């Protein structure tokens, strides 16, 4: 079944299904599920392409994509076929055995990146945990650092585990979870002098900077792209003093930026980088990639029960191959330029409310003025009323991360909805 057929079928609400047979109750949900999310008041039931439908049959254009995760949108034929084929063949075995699908996916990643080795896990946080552990072992065994320090950036986001929220340079994510993991220090993003000062100042006794962990573009920190000159100086600094450069590509990687990897925008290669989100197109998978020289893990030093099982790797490989076969990166670049141009035209109409539009490919942010009372969640709610799903990236930035297959017509439709939402709030 083609994607077009799925989209045509998707124009009508479902006649039956689990939710239709058993009416959904938000009260029942809230009484059973921990309140770790501030949920918007809609209940999504199904999707096709770049569209989703709620339990009332209302249609939405999805510019959230599971927060930059549904690379090929919803119910893409390549994923449907891969899921069906793999679940009927073999879905899970232990990493105590060779897994052909895992080897094929690792080979694809290596052929399409600067990596020499791949470790598979289940999420971006776990991928970053693996990178942190690898950097620490490298520091102890190769650099002879007794107390290694990893530099990260203010306003960064690296995950929700204890180590990765410590690595995250945003105190709001760390509140109430102390004592935090030692060995991290924060510097301003895109500020090379701050990095140089930190490297010098933290070199005391048994303590020394061993690695820099940074996003090529800060996603949760407000969709802020890295400066080319800054990253090139960062690479030279790491080479000069022999420390590792680690890129968190969990949100920006796998074609989201218009290139397969975010580092390609910056003219440098990391020693270690991580991926998740878009890698599986919505199927949970994470990966930590490294150059051969810093692959110092030995058997038993790191592991994952579910990481890299046949099911997730088979589906992720289909996502990777579809990106390549259908030239989706070209669409990402074209639609990203179209989206930014349209958002800037809206910003020009509402200069008191919108100060900047920025991003790469199909990860873009619209920053609201500090002088306006408008907040990103308010804009998101207004857009929902217009049939468009968006997501905040902080209190003052609205994020646009649609599936990478989004069409020219759908971008125009989204822009119309955004303008209506802003107009309703501006009044």
Structure commentary:
It is a single chain. The protein has 427 residues and is an alpha/beta fold. Helices cover 39% and strands 18% of the residues. It is built from 15 helices and 17 strands. The strands form four sheets. The chain has a seven-stranded mixed β-sheet with strand order 4-12-11-10-7-5-6, sandwiched between helices. Strand 8 and strand 9 form a beta hairpin. The chain is globular.
List the helices and strands and how they pair.
Blueprint: H1 3-9, H2 18-21, H3 26-32, E1 44-48, E2 51-54, E3 59-62, H4 65-68, H5 77-89, H6 100-111, E4 117-121, H7 124-141, E5 147-153, H8 162-167, H9 171-174, E6 184-187, H10 192-201, E7 207-214, E8 217-218, E9 224-225, H11 228-241, E10 244-248, E11 272-275, E12 286-290, H12 310-325, H13 328-349, E13 354-360, E14 363-368, H14 376-385, E15 388-389, E16 391-392, E17 397-400, H15 408-426
Parallel strand pairs: 3-15, 5-6, 5-7, 7-10, 10-11
Antiparallel strand pairs: 1-2, 2-3, 4-12, 8-9, 11-12, 13-14, 14-17, 16-17
Helix pairs in contact: 5-12, 6-12, 13-15, 14-15
List its salient traits:
alpha/beta; globular; 4-stranded mixed β-sheet; 15 helices; Aspartate Aminotransferase, domain 2; 427 residues; Aspartate Aminotransferase, domain 1; 39% helix
